Amino acid sequence: MARITLEHLAHSYLPAPQSPDDYALKELNLDWEDGAAYALLGASGCGKSTLLNIISGLLTPSRGRILFDGVDMTAAPTAQRNIAQVFQFPVVYDTMTVRENLAFPLRNRGRDPAYIAERVQAVARMIGMEDQLSRKARGLTADAKQKISLGRGMVRREVNALLFDEPLTVIDPHMKWELRTQLKSLHHEFGHTMIYVTHDQTEALTFADKVVVMHDGRVVQVGTPQELFERPAHTFVGYFIGSPGMNLLPATIEGDRAYVNGIHVPLGGRYGPLAGGTRIGVRPEFARLSKDEGLPVRISRIEDVGRHKILRATCFGTEINILAAEGEAIPAEASRVVFDPANVNVYADDWLVAPAQGSAA
Q1: Given CA atoms 18, 20, 24, 28 in this order, what sign does their dihedral have?
Q2: What is the pTM of this model?
Q3: pLDDT tens across 328-353, in order?
Q4: What is the residue range of 285's domain?
Q5: Residue 341 CA to chain centroid, in angstroms?
Q6: Which of 31, 115, 195, 257 is packed most tightly, with the most Cβ within 10 A?
Q7: Which residues form the ABC transporter domain (predicted)?
């Protein structure tokens, strides 16, 4: 296991990048703590796989350094980094049996046959393939082959890090849940540093101790699932995390009030003068309908999703969502929305602004 440090790291696929827009991965500094489980979350094309491939050694960064426990590994090949990587699509040896595929990383390192047999049996049990150990990989389904890839990545106990690049893409939904649970169990048992790349917020939030959210080649927030939900550091995080995502409304900020089209919205703290485009962000969970106070809204439809209702509405032309409890009646005359002041976030140029020191927020 290792602490992985990224120092002033940036990467461009162009031979002579001139501006930040030329970089697929914009400059970042980041520490991955030894033994922690991370999810690297973002939309397709945001730079997740580029960053993972730099950590694994499949890609050399244009700028900066990567350190394993303080040792510069920027130019070191993958084999020297002692990591295991599982890719989006299965990579298996079709001519080998399931047992031989799982054993390959250990045999390649000259481990004792008894130890290999014990580890292969344990991992096969973990991925639900004990009864298929003698089968050739050729002819197995895509999800079975991906389970072999996952098992081969997990079979070595002594790796510095386990890297997963959207590994459950070809796995059926029920098996996804089981494998995520098993990966968590493996992490708790052996304490490997794990980095799990995904565009699926459910996978990220259920797997990771901390989530690294990327947008447009940049890390916009690193935090626990609770931190990402309660205080998104960037409007993209608010939009991307949560179902539905955060409501965002253009607003003017004056002290402890925001003004949306001239109507005031109480804030949980006081703010100084703000430059740039300012908006307020409120989770649908912290919005409620009212008959006589708040901002005017027009409800377009109500979606009952079992645990609660999602009210789709517009506020001064901006689409917003409001959550109501499953049994809550929706009065026909309710035409306004009120936000919980303690859970109204303020953003300037898409970045979260903290209230003035000593403020109640």
Answers
A1: positive
A2: 0.86
A3: 878 777 899 999 999 999 999 999 99
A4: 247-353
A5: 27
A6: 195
A7: 4-241
